[in-house]
Amino acid sequence: MYHGKPAWFELTTAPGQLAAAGTFYGKVLGWDLADAGMPGMTYHLASHGGDMVAGMMEATTQMPPGWLIHFDVDDVDAATALVTGRGGKVLHPPTDIPGTGRFAVVSDPQGAAFGLLQPTPMDPQPPAGSGAWNQRKEGHGNWTELMSTDPDAALDFYAKLLGWTLSQTMDMGDQGTYRIFAWNGTQIGGIMGLGHAPQSRWLPYFGVNGVAAAVDRVTGSGGTLIHGPQEVPGPAFVAALRDPQGADFALVGPLEVTA
Question: Side by side, which strands form the sheet with 113-119?
């Protein structure tokens, strides 16, 4: 419906830690958690202000805890074919989710994993600001960031796959160039070099009203502050964090709580 828009955020947490992860993000982001009732697996849905904003499940393999960002596509099978045709890999083939749509999990040529989601058509079509992604609502997805071994190649890959355009570049000194990309003219994320990341990967940012207070909630609930809060253009403040199970995420918003 909205090809190229961030559509869903999914946490895979450590075995036996699903309830604890839900409690943590509930405290930090004000999410309400409920079991999705999916047959054959336990999958929890997080909501905020009436919108479904994220999903959570436990790892069934030795994969480390982490967040996966899914992007909206018009045709998940065609998008998956484009991924492999341009050097990416399929990690989970296109599969139907009854009542939701069709999804796949893939990785770009540099190895960063992400999801593709083709939602079930709806009439009327919901507005672009509904759902998990809304840069004007706290507790929702607000920014996406890719750390890559080859930022220029990555930007070209996603431009062809998802229709993103380069909106702005920023000199980050020793950290190189930060490439801000746009979807339908709206800035939705950035691409940078690998930095301190062990490998190419995506990082989700969630909006909060008061980054400083949210960081306190993170550290007070067993999470770790990795970097920040740091002021960025907007103006806004960002902080990079790690939950108690080891999944990295980031927060963005005003430094202090506003009315």
Answer: 32-35, 44-48, 51-58, 6-13, 66-72, 113-119, 101-107, 89-97
Tallying the residues shown for the chain, one arrives at 259
The Cα 88–Cα 70 span in angstroms is: 16
Query: What are the pLDDT digits (tens) for 206-240?
Result: 999 999 999 999 999 999 999 989 999 878 999 99
- β-partners of residue 119 are 101
Q: Which amino acid is at 4?
A: G
CATH number at residue 229: 3.10.180.10
Q: What is the pLDDT of residue 129?
A: 67
Cβ distance 200 to 155 under 8 Å?
no
Domain range for 159: 1-120+139-259
Please tell me the distance from the alpha carbon of residue 189 to that of residue 203, in angstroms, as a whole number: 10
Let me know if residue 131 belongs to a domain: no
Assigned domain for 132 exists: no
How many domains does one find in the chain?
Answer: 1
CB-CB neighbours of 256 under 10 Å = 11
Q: How far is CA 212 from CA 26, 49, 80, 95, 133, in A?
A: 17, 22, 40, 40, 22
pLDDT in tens, 11-31: 999 999 999 999 999 999 999
How far apart are alpha carbons 189 and 19 in whole angstroms? Answer: 30
